Amino acid sequence: MNNATKKWLFLKCSSVTLIPLMFWFIINLSLIYESEYSDVFNFFSTQSTKILFSTFIIVAFFFSSLTISEIFEDYIHNERTKNVANKVLYIFAIIIPLLTIISIFNLTL
Amino acid sequence: MSSNNNPLSPHLQIYKWQISSLLSIAHRIVGVINIFAITLICLWSASLALGEANYEVINFFLRSFFGKFFIVSLCWTFSFHILNEIRHLTWDFGYGFDPKISKITGIIVFFGSFILTTIIYLWGIFFI
User: Which residues does A2 contact at the CB level (< 8 Å), separation at least 6?
Assistant: First the structure.
């Protein structure tokens, strides 16, 4: 299996996983965004939310890094610029979910 | 600096506007907007760990007109991305390539995204 096929399969698997997670998240966000600190804290402190939200952001950043790298491939011609842009993208896609997951797993009721 | 001779994608103004190209371009733009929004949401959820005082600043924004506008916009970008991704997945299974069907599914995605946005936002209001 060549790299392009692997990338396509990763993209499709992550998009299938992402659809129900996006539904779950946007519905819950519309429910809690105006709530008080304690309500939002309680929401993010439950074990099911921690697992679902962590999965959501991991898959979302994974999917985004693959799709945005495709945009770089289409519009950035210079190889060095493209490599730097991809590296920054991949670092960003690792650090943001990692910090968020550490933060929400430290929330305890 | 090294460079290769691979062709670049043409710039957007070269395309003749039609529903397929409009949705394709919008799908990419909305995808980039979504990841920026998810990054802000990550910071919002992480801010919970900093205590109530810090959270109040974000809560003040979310309760304002601009906060509501941000959430409604996010409902639309998520709805649009979900529906258009389902359209892409049906293509991957070999269905909906016929230009007429493709146009119909494109229109369904476009108008469906507004309907889904309304449903999600009203759900948030009535089930709170």
Answer: none
Specify the pLDDT at position B20: 86
Name chain B contacts of A80, Cβ cutoff 8 Å: 1-2
The number of distinct structural domains making up chain A is 1
For residue B1, the model assigns a pLDDT of 47
Domain boundaries, chain B: 18-126
ipTM: 0.90
Could A22 and B81 be called an inter-chain contact, meaning their C-beta atoms sit closer than 8 Å?
yes
Judged by CB atoms closer than 8 Å, whether chains meet at B42 and A67 is answered as: no
Q: Classify domain B18-126 at the CATH topology level.
A: 3 helical TM bundles of succinate and fumarate reductases (1.20.1300)
* Closest CA of chain B from A81, distance in Å: 9
pLDDT in tens, A12-27: 999 999 999 999 999 9
Considering only CA atoms, which of A53, A70, A63 is closest in space to residue A9? A63
Q: Which residue of B has its CA nearest to A62?
A: B35
Residue A72 touches chain B, beta carbons under 8 Å: no
Q: How far is CA B117 from the centre of its chain?
A: 11
Structure tokens at B22: 């409009």
d(CA B31, CA B94): 23
DSSP notation for B78-116: HHHHHHHHHHHHHHHTT-S-SHHHHHHHHHHHHHHHHHH
Q: Looking at the predicted structure, is the pLDDT value of residue B34 above 90?
A: yes
Contact between B88 and A33 using a beta-carbon 8 Å cutoff: no
